[in-house]
Amino acid sequence: MPLAIYQVDAFTDKPFTGNPAGVCVLKEARDDRWMQNVACEMNLSETAFLRERADGFNLRWFTPTVEVDLCGHATLASSHILWQEAYLKPEEKANFHTLSGLLTARKESGWIELDFPMEPVEKVSSPPGLIEALGVTASYVGKSRLDYLVEIESETDLRKLSPDLKLLESVPSRGVIVTCRSESSGFDFVSRFFAPRVGIDEDPVTGSAHCALGPYWRTRLKKNEFLAYQASQRGGVVRVHVGDKRVLLSGQAVTVLRAELDD
C-alpha cells in the first residue's frame, strides 16, 4: 500500500525558503537500510521517520548518507505534519523518543516550540584543517558534543564565506558552525552551518546548532532570549530561549509537497 511522504520547509513561513525536510509517518517498523535509501532518494539534508507508540512517537533522522543523533528542522517539520494531518489535536503536545532522549513540541501563537537538550560549547584548540578550510580569522574556536563552533568578527565575511568543503570534511565532527554578532536590524546573532562529513555541504537552517549557539551567545551577550538568523542562500529564522539545561527553539513551517512512496 502506498505510504505518504511530505516535504516541509522549516524555520520559515514562506515556501521555498528555510530548510526543507522529508517527513514519513510509518505504519509499521522498517529497517535501517530502507530508511537510509528513502533519505537518499529524497536527497534533503534530513528525512524524518516517525512511528506512533502509546506515549508519543519514535523519531529518527537520516541525511542522504547517515543517521544523525539530533535534528531540529526535521523535528519541527515532523511536528507540523502531525498537527496538519490530525495525528495530534492542535492543543496536544508532541512527544518524540529519539537518540537524544525525549524531545517535545507544542504550538504557540502560530509558531512551533521545540524543547531540546543544551549542547554546551567549550573552548578548544583549532583542529588541523579547520581554519584553513574556512579561510577566516577566528576570534573563538569551541566544540560542543556534536560540532565545532567558530566565531568571526564580520557578518559581511560570514555571508561571503566559501569554505574548502573537501578539507572541511577531514575535521572530526558532525559539522562546523560559523557565527558572529548580527549587523542586521532585529537579530542578535547570525550563523552558517557546514557538514560535508555527513553528506551536507551547507545546511540551510540548523535547529540543533542553536542548542550550542544559544548558550554560547548567552555568555557573550548576557541574556537568555534571542532572535537568530541563519544566513544560507535560503535563510531562516529561529527564536531561541536558553534555560538551565534545555534550549527552547521556535520556528514556523510550510508544507510544499505531498507524495506517495510505492513500496
Care to describe what's here?
The chain folds into two domains: 3-109 and 250-261, Diaminopimelate Epimerase, Chain A, domain 1; 122-242, Roll (Diaminopimelate Epimerase, Chain A, domain 1). Helices cover 19% and strands 42% of the residues. The protein is an alpha+beta fold and 263 residues long. It has an 18-stranded mixed β-sheet that branches. It has six helices and 18 strands. It has helices at 32-42, 72-84, 130-134, 155-160, 165-168, 210-221; strands spanning 3-10, 19-26, 46-53, 56-62, 67-68, 94-98, 101-108, 111-117, 122-123, 140-143, 147-151, 175-181, 189-195, 200-203, 225-230, 236-242, 246-251, 253-261. The protein is globular.
Helix amount: 10-25%
Point out poorly predicted stretches: none
What's the CATH H-level superfamily name of the largest domain? Diaminopimelate Epimerase, Chain A, domain 1
Name the shape in a single word.
globular
Radius of gyration: 18 Å
CATH class of the largest domain, named Alpha Beta
Count of individual domains = 2
Major beta sheet, specifics? 18 strands, mixed
CA-CA gap between termini: 7 Å
CATH architecture of the largest domain: Roll
**If you consult CATH, what is the topology of the largest domain?**
Diaminopimelate Epimerase, Chain A, domain 1
- Structural class by helix and strand composition: alpha+beta
- Beta content comes to 35-45%
The helix/strand series, from N terminus to C terminus, equals EEHEEEHEEEEHEEHHEEEHEEEE
Total of helices: 6
Number of DSSP-assigned strands: 18
Mean pLDDT, all residues: 96
Keywords, please?
single chain, 263 residues, alpha+beta, Diaminopimelate Epimerase, Chain A, domain 1, 2 domains, 18-stranded mixed beta sheet, 18 strands, 19% helix
